[in-house]
Amino acid sequence: MGPPPSVSSYHPNSVAPSTPFSTAATPFTPRPADVSHLQPSLQNIVSTVNLGCQLDLKRIALQARNAEYNPKRFAAVIMRIRNPRTTALIFGSGKMVCTGAKSEEDSLQAARRYARVIQKLGFPAKFRDFKIQNMVGSVDVKFPIRLEALVLKHYQFCSYEPELFPGLIYRMMQPKIVLLIFVSGKVVLTGAKVRREIHEAFERIYPILKVVRGRGASGGRGRGRGRGRGRGRPVARGGRHGSRRIGRQPRMDIDQQQASTTPITDLDINGDSKPFFVNANVTLDQHIQAQTTNLSRYLATLFSLDLNSVEIGQKAKACALAAAWCRHDHKLANNLLRHRRLFTLTEVLKAVTMLDAARQIRVYEKKLKRLELNKIKPKAIKLGKIKNNIDNLNKLKPSNGSASGAVARHIQRWTRTLTKQELEYFALHMPTEPWKKLADIVHFNPTKDFPSLPWFLPFCFGTSAPAETMVARCRDLTNENVNDLLKEFSIPYSHLKQFKEHLNETSKAKIAAKEDKLDTILWYYEDLQCSPVDDIISERLRDGEQITLPYGKLMERLLLCRMLREGESTTSTRYGRRGARNTTSNSSNQPAHPDKAKFYSDLLPVAQAQLEKIKLPLESPVAVIGDASGSMEVAIRTATILSSLLTAICSAKLNFFNDKVFEPAFVPKTLEDVLSLALITQADGSTANAAGLVPYYNAKEVIKTFVMVTDEEENANGTIADGSTTRFFELFMKYRAEIYPAKLVFISFLSHQHAQGQMYSQFVNANVPDVLQFKFNRERPDLTKIDNLIGLLSTGSSASFDNSLDPLQVEFEQNGIESVITRLVEKQDENSMPMDVEMNKTTAAN
């Protein structure tokens, strides 16, 4: 029985779980100059090896050099060598642990040297099962980090107890890496099995750390209140590094606090209502005012953006819920909570935290008063931290409203609607910390408030799940018994993903046959790929089973299938760098491996039908200009697919450029054409964005909307008809002045989600109107964001957005909130995806 669609994902910004094409398979090398010097360096590698014989530890300690053995303290010989400088723990069973190496090669070399020492002592030692168990890396990001801000933004993954340990512990879900993050900017990464995971984890965490960047240099003072607030006394940290000075404690922060520093003052719910849900700087009080002024338009905007696949920030959703509670409109809040995909545990906890800010302020003020009245002078760093928390909670606190008993009772009623399957999914796959925090405020009753799973709340606080439950059963899964248990039980694939390497074809076929929704099988197809699974997918498609995957994900699945059938590598580089290719491989229209992904021809019409339904209100004629320069080598397939899709949807003109402009091999009109063009278009040469615009400028051709698909790394000029050379910005401004004031859409492949791009920045700084930007991650281009891109283009102009907003506003006014939300929830249930698929949707992030 598959997981239900009713619990949506947490939104851990850039730490969202990767999809098959969103994870670089080669070690990540940061491209931008400001990150290239920040590659993590390996500090320690722990490996194990089996020597295959019983050992006399006392004899080894007596005969070997640099060996010590104290069985009363530790039941192993500790042996050290200088080259490479490592330490080995040698056990009587023949098992050996090698630590201290700085590279994989050193670890292997050291383990072999220890084994040779044992052999020379007369033991029949072999060298078996060498395996790297853990890698530890470190990096200094060169700026201070506000740890309280980080723990509040990503509380699902963070543990921070400064009284016990000065660092924040961040448990990343994908890859499974634990990071120790310090206020000084030092980051330690541990838990990796391969070097790539260290680099990938740092690539994911670096944009997040930049968001919670502190002021000034590492360990510096920054703004303070009073003498002791900005500085701490020297504190010994032990070890050979001696002591260091601890800087000002990081400020407590969540989204609302950043917003309060630069609030937007010209918001009008009766005018342009989109900023309430797409701008992070809108405050809770402004949401309250908007709901009070025009509630029907406020709700129509929220759900219109969602229906158009426009990404709505977690803060905006939390503010919408908190504003309803502040206004004592519990009916509205209850109706919002019925929309499980938009309003999840994350939004509920954030909203309650805002309402609880006033109580937390009183707690801190009492604590501060006790410390100030104490005869023993408190440490300045302790006082400074409390004052910082009070300051930031005051910014967070709404002008009215609190986490009252009425609010708590409504949240308790909400938790009573959660099903057993939903709670089991939380218990198996999600951190329990958010539930513990919510329970501390709401004071749940384990039995009454979780009737479908009474043991769930005690489980969150550390109690084991009952032995007969799915949670306990799945926790007992091992590599050895997974196939046997699958013969006995039907276990959802979301619980089996970690054992994918050990599933046999029989188990994979059973999973494909028993999984409730075909979406799950398609999402994880590369994990389950085999001939029996292909047959089951084909049969379910021919039986008319509905596919509810987002269009972008469906495109990604089709590209994966096409690459498998064409013999393209799908594991080494994903959308990454490719070697020499035969660009005529598709000329015969016969796949190299027709036995793979046999359901491809059945899936293609489903996606084609969805493509034909997409309508973009871009002002015609439209021209798409695709970047095929060398700097786009990693993202060229994604860029080509985006360019081709927009061309097919809008009947647009298409060209590509590197140092000069060139036409595509053919103009894509169908989905098959889009995929074919993606496989044959290659990237090389310099980047002359202006070259793509030159043909339209020279011909004085009127184009009303230009779509520029690029990484914005312009490094060459375009040459126009009179022989002069120019960059894109100058040429586009000439085009607007001399030919037509065209609109411009940048689809930008950038280093991270907070980068703006050098070309887009030029237009922003010059206040050029009608310029939009949509961002993709350059190193991990993700086709699943196509839906968000289409949503942005669909709502880019006020006129086009009002066309979808006005009817919904009228419906809210005529039929009432409950009736409309009921319809939207029913529509959501019809088109919902399995919960594990929802959990893996990339919504934020890069």
UniProtKB/TrEMBL annotation:
List the CDD domains hit by this protein, alphabetically: TBP_eukaryotes (cd04516)
List where Low complexity composition bias occurs: 16-28
GO MF annotations, alphabetized: DNA binding
The UniProt annotation puts the region (Disordered) at: 1-28, 215-268, 570-594
Major localisation: nucleus
Q: Would the keyword Hydrolase turn up in this protein's UniProt record? A: no
UniProt keywords (A-Z) are:
DNA-binding, Nucleus, Transcription
Biological process (GO) annotations held by this record are: DNA-templated transcription initiation
InterPro entries, sorted: TBP, TBP_CS, TBP_dom_sf, TBP_eukaryotic, vWFA_dom_sf
Lineage, top-rank taxon, reads Eukaryota
Official protein name in the record: Uncharacterized protein
